[in-house]
Amino acid sequence: MQLAWKPLITAIMVIALVSGCGTKETNGGKQPNSSNNDTNQTETTQSDHTGQSEASQPSSGVSENGTTSAEENNQQETRPSEIQLPYMADGKEVKETASLKTSDNQGFSLYVLKGWNLDAEEPHSDVLLHDNSFVRIRLLHVEGNGTDYGKLAEEHAQAVSSDAVRQDSANLPESLKGAAWYTAHSENMTVHVIGTSSPVPMLVIIQTPKDKEELAPILAMIETIRKTDSAKLDKEAADPNESVSSSN
């Protein structure tokens, strides 16, 4: 009996061994490759961070375009130091070199023809001087539509002569059309008084010799007046209702 069981026991042991090897091989095939998974996770994480970084950074093209636009705006606001200023003389257009000058007194700039000088005059006015010609420029502090430019110009003109006459502003350069314009005569001088809201609210008094009126080039310069950043049209600025005698 013992001899009969030995072959059977041996066969059972062999089967058990074969089954055990097969199970190990199967489990080995099912185990994930940790090295490959770690690599894939690292690549995925790096990709996610890269995408987030790119999304959070502004486009360089937009930034450059924005800078360019700002520079272009600044260039448009900057006035050249010299221009060829045109005006009519004897029915013909004349162009002369004019230089940009700035009034720190009232906060404006304008182009001044050669031979003319811009000087500050107190209180709150500037003057253009050339030989015997004289131009007083007073920027006005205007609130709403309360300024009567016609009355203002008339009062100043009549302070020169009671025979002051109102002129047709249609004969003035384009930006001054619609202004109040009076002319008065005193001895050998002709005085033009212009009250206008364009190009800026101001009162202009032009005094020239009767035999040498230079109205056209003067008006050409007046047309170029622009306020600057330093303009201080506040309570200290010229009051339109200020006494006429103080400006003569």
From TrEMBL:
<feature type="compositionally biased region" description="Polar residues">
    <location>
        <begin position="24"/>
        <end position="78"/>
    </location>
</feature>
<protein>
    <recommendedName>
        <fullName>Lipoprotein</fullName>
    </recommendedName>
</protein>
<feature type="region of interest" description="Disordered">
    <location>
        <begin position="24"/>
        <end position="87"/>
    </location>
</feature>
